Amino acid sequence: MKHRKQNKPAPQTHPSASAVPSYHRILAKHGLIEKTLSIPDAYEVFLKVGADPEVQKHRRQIAHGHKMKRVPALYLATAMALQGMTKQEVEALKLRIKEKRV
Predict the structure, then answer these.
(1) Quick one: angle between helices 74-84 and 22-29, nearest 10?
(2) Nearby residues of 20 by Cβ (< 8 Å), 6 or more positions away
């Protein structure tokens, strides 16, 4: 008689990535927020990042570029814009966001 193996998932020690909104993960990935920042506070930062003229400029370049005709979601467009920015541009964005928060 053969015994079937039981595949049990490993116990999670931290909340799953899907428990955190995508905009929170995007901002944390680029170092614009701490991973421990609350979701409502992260959303406020996300709105400020999306309203930043430099981010909007990069978003327009992506939308009009040859890679994508239409960017379906704001968070995806913002993520692509942040990826297209240099480290210096991201650091300058961090400073502008901190100025607006204070």
Answers:
(1) 10
(2) 39
Report if residue 5 sits inside a domain.
no
Q: pTM for the whole thing? A: 0.70
Dump pLDDT digits (tens) for 58-80. Answer: 888 876 665 555 545 777 888 88
Positive or negative torsion for Cα 89, 90, 93, 94 = negative
Two tokens, residue 65: 């570029």
Half-sphere exposure of 66 (CA within 13 A, CB side): 0
Residues 6+ apart with CB under 8 A from 31: 90, 94
The DSSP output letter for 33 is: S
Residue with tokens 């692509």: 80
**Domain span including residue 53:** 21-101
Q: Show the tokens assigned to 10.
A: 């490993």
* Burial of 50 (C-beta count, 10 Å sphere; 0-12/13-18/19+): middle
Question: Tokens 């993960």 — which residue?
Answer: 25
The reply to whether 8 falls in a domain is no
